[in-house]
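Dear Dr. H.,

I hope your travels went smoothly. While you were away I took the liberty of generating a structure for the chain from your last submission, since the lab meeting agenda had it listed for discussion. I wanted you to have the full record in hand beforehand rather than looking at slides cold. The sequence, exactly as received, is reproduced here:
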Amino acid sequence: MGMVDMDTIFASIIGASSALLGAALTANIQLRTQRNSHLFQHESDDLKRQNEKLEREISLALERLTTAHLLLSAIGREFSQAKILINWKAEMTDGEYDQKYLAICQDMDELRAIAGLYETALSDDVETLHRCMNRFWGEFQNVLRLSALGQNVNHETSCYNATHVAATEIQERTRTLKERLTKQAEKYRNLA
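The corresponding predicted structure, in token form, is as follows:
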């Protein structure tokens, strides 16, 4: 009987140990599962935040490109062949034209900021466009002064001719820059 009792006790100890070991293994597996689930949720949340951040950055970039495109359209229109005739026929004074020029310079300043801070690949071309605007302004100032003095101004007058050359260059540069903006916008949209 002493042996049977020992076998029973031994079996009970083994059974209890097995139960404890099974419970420990189950607890360990549950802990690992919870930890893996928590890590997966954390990584999923991080990925979601990164995607949201990327979407916001793309949206802001597309807004800047839209603004730059609109600014280029305004600049191109203000320094066009048609605008030369409109301003000249209006018998605008050089002082009045200075005010118009300063207003469009604000658009150029905004365009330069976008190119200089965000779309740096466009910066050199935007600066060249700015120099063309200045050249146009100076030459057109001379056209207005000569006209105000009653002198005959036509295509053979150097300042009038230079104004048209500058206008043509501005039109070409704004067109090219807008094409580049369109391509850049397409790249941003493909990232989304």
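Two observations you may find useful: The chain has a mean pLDDT of 89. Residues 81 and 164 are 6 Å apart (CA to CA).

With kind regards,
E. W.
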